[in-house]
Design a protein that fits this description.
Elements: H1 17-33, E1 37-38, E2 44-46, H2 47-53, H3 59-64, E3 67-69, E4 75-78, H4 83-92, E5 102-111, E6 123-132, H5 137-153, E7 159-165, H6 172-183, H7 192-200, H8 211-217, H9 229-244, E8 250-251, E9 263-271, E10 279-285, H10 289-292, E11 300-306, H11 307-316, E12 329-333, H12 339-351, E13 356-358, H13 365-375, E14 379-383, H14 385-389, E15 392-397, E16 403-407, H15 411-418
Parallel strand pairs: 1-5, 7-8, 12-13, 12-14
Antiparallel strand pairs: 2-4, 3-4, 5-6, 6-11, 7-9, 9-10, 10-11, 14-15, 15-16
């Protein structure tokens, strides 16, 4: 059947689109205040970008990407996340030659093949920010503060910020050795996916959702116990900055995030009762990703949040109310011979900034008034032959039914005054 949307996708309908506009308006406002500039990258990229950038052992690359060969036999992937494309754009457009740091944000659709659940779709929308070229722990705290500030401006409550450090190339080998030793005797009990991760990237086992794997990993040595001096100092400084601006957090030693490119700071923001997962957003530092994508050794940090999950949370917390589609004015006609005049008046109203509508279905005057009432208009302009002959028009106030004769030369200023425009 053609008249059904693909599984895992969603229509954003009138009455709900207004929620999205609200979220996006706050995004643009807050990012401007924090010094971030908007970037819009292609919806599809070369598959290699995600294989190298996101990590070949991640669930995204192994199981979830929408990849295909185009007509030129190139391997293309619908973007499953926004960081790798932003890194690619940073390099390709030579942002690194500008004064640093580079601070960017994006809003747009992403695509992952997974089992659709509440708040989780195969096409979903993300808001994310990325900062390049700074090692400073205060920028880590700023990125986290921006995310928390965004939720605060939307009046979302019940949030928990989980924070960890996942180390770097200096301290990870020591942790990997301890982790492999801990899991060695339990290897056969790991799920097939984690058995593959055992040698390639055992840290990713912490991110597995399998109950057995979670039990096996619960007593494993934490990366925070193996941090090098630089990572430990950086993690302590991030916490100091967060405390200074009164952002509460929980140090979660098992938090590793789902992507291979993270180093040092990793964070996740949790909220209860939003369907398949409790995470509403998260991110971290990725000091190796730019180099992995072909650039020089450039640090980076960012976050991403799924807007569907934000809206679901707001709905469950009673923060969204149904919006009613309303127009300022309806132009009605006594008979169809006046339609051309109505059309002209309609455009005059719109050119003055008013929202206006007319009948396009050949309705009677009575039916036009009923239709205008359903549209929620405050005033109806009624065009009749007698009124036009005297250079006037009838204005009906829908709330009271009061009718007033207004000269054609004055009807725009009259309507603006009536509607407090």
């Amino acid at each position: 059947m053609l008249a059904t949307r693909p599984r895992g996708t969603n229509d954003i309908l009138p009455g709900k689109v207004e929620y999205w506009r609200k979220l996006e308006d706050v995004i643009h406002e807050i990012c401007q205040q924090y010094g971030f500039r908007e970037i819009r990258t292609p919806i599809f990229e070369h598959t290699e970008l995600f294989a190298r950038g996101v990590g070949e052992t991640t669930d995204i690359v192994e199981k979830e990407m929408y990849s295909f060969l185009d007509r030129g036999k190139r391997n293309i992937t619908l973007r499953p996340e926004g960081t790798a494309p932003t890194v690619r754009a940073f390099l390709e457009n030579k942002f690194y030659a500008e004064p640093q740091p580079t601070k960017l944000y994006y809003i747009g659709p992403m695509f992952r093949y997974g089992r659709p659940q509440a708040g989780r779709f195969r096409q979903f929308h993300q808001f994310g920010v990325e900062v390049f070229s700074s090692h400073d722990p205060s920028i880590d705290a700023e990125v986290i503060a921006l995310a928390m500030d965004y939720y605060k401006r939307l009046n979302i409550s019940g949030l928990e910020l989980h924070l960890n450090s996942v180390g770097c190339s200096k301290c990870r080998p020591a942790h990997k050795e301890k982790l492999l030793e801990h899991l060695k005797e339990q290897y056969t009990n790991l799920c097939p996916t984690c058995q593959g991760r055992y040698e390639k990237n055992p840290l990713r086992i912490f991110d597995c959702k399998n109950d057995t794997c979670q039990k096996l990993i619960s007593a494993a040595p934490a990366i925070t116990d193996c941090l090098c001096d630089d990572c430990r100092e950086h993690f302590e400084q991030v916490q100091k900055y967060l405390k200074e601006i009164n952002i509460e957090y929980i140090v979660d030693k098992k938090l590793v995030r789902g992507l291979d490119y993270y180093t040092k700071t990793a964070f996740e923001i949790m909220v209860e009762d939003i369907g398949a997962q409790s995470s509403i957003g998260g991110g971290g530092r990725y000091d190796r990703l730019v180099k992995e994508c072909g650039g020089s050794d450039t640090p980076g940090i960012g976050f991403a949040m799924g807007l569907e999950r934000v809206i679901l949370t707001m709905e469950q917390q009673g923060l969204l109310k149904d919006t009613k589609f309303e127009q300022d004015v309806f132009v009605a006609t006594v008979d169809s011979s006046l339609d051309l005049e109505a059309f002209k008046i309609l455009q005059i109203l719109r050119s003055e900034g008013l929202s206006a509508e007319k009948d396009y279905m050949g309705r009677s005057l009575k039916s036009q008034l009923k239709y205008a009432d359903k549209l929620g208009v405050s005033h109806v302009l009624v065009l009749g032959q007698d009124e036009l002959a005297t250079g006037s028009i009838t204005v009906k106030k829908m709330e009271t039914g009061e009718q007033t004769q207004v000269q054609l030369a004055e009807f725009v200023s009259y309507i603006k005054k009536e509607t407090n425009f």
